[in-house]
Amino acid sequence: MQNKTPSLGLEIGLLAVAILAAAFLYWSHTQQPYSAPQGTVGRLMEAANSGKLDELQKASTPDYYGVFVRHFGQQKYQRVSSIYDLVVRLGMPRWQDYRLRASQQAMVAYERLQEQVRTLGREAFNRLPVEERMQLMDDTSRYSAFLFEKGFEALPPDERARIDSAEDFRQGRDRGRFAEREAWNFLSEEDRAALGSPATLSEGSTPEKLAFLDRIGLPLLNPSMKQEIAGIERSELNDPATFQFKYGEPLAREYLAKAKIPKPPQISPCSFPREDTRGSLLREDLAECQLKVQARKQVQEVRVALRKADFRWLVQSMQPNLYEIAW
Known about the structure:
This protein is mainly alpha-helical. The protein folds into 2 domains: 27-51 and 261-324, no CATH class; 72-253, no CATH class. The protein has 14 helices and 3 strands. A hairpin with a 2-residue loop joins strand 2 and strand 3 (312-319). Helix 4 packs across helix 11. The longest helix is centred in the first third of the chain and has 65 residues, at 62-126. It starts with a helix and ends in an 8-residue tail after the last strand. The model is unreliable at 21-31 and 277-282 (pLDDT under 50).
């Protein structure tokens, strides 16, 4: 029995040390930033009051921070998008002039090609014996078919290559396609240099066409519009999410710097939605906090939802959001 006493004492001592160590670790954790929902809400409001977007981000989940920043980026996106739409309208008359000129010249070439086929067909007809000519002339359909077939066959290879369907060309059904396809070839060197590429004449919104419209339309904007889109390429509008985050951050920072958000208010004790059914020792990673803030002459109630991640409580949503309150 005497040999067991030291062992029992040692065990009790080790247990006491373990309890003290655990208590110290828990105390240390509670002293860390974001270890409690109320503390996180206070830090977020303090960051908003001092205009520190980086500190606001530390107190937020990535989702909430993204919502906050993209709110400002979305407004920027809409303004920039509307200005670039105006640029298209401003540049369109010049584009239409080039396209009309090219189409008209292409149609003249089309009619010339039609006449060339008829001329070559008549020459082939005139080389026939008189008897064969008389027979063909008695049958209008055969006569027309002969003139076209022989005339088409006699076209130089480079001219014949301009026609994508002999039957459509015979019936005149390919006028629009011919003009669309061949318009560039009938423009002057000066016009080609101004347009830069055949794709500029496309009916659709090709990159080349948009670049041309920008070259024409951008200089026609007023100074405030030019300043709004300064340094922003049209292509950035193709990825709204990236655009809104990229240009939303500086605007969110500017908003916090100008908004008169009051110092952190008194925060009521936060609640844990599932605590009532599972007990306080089984709290999950969700919490809700209620606070009242002074917005001008009114008191605004705000509900904040938080989520615990990696032992840190972070703001997940806020109703109403900071930018929805008239400070």
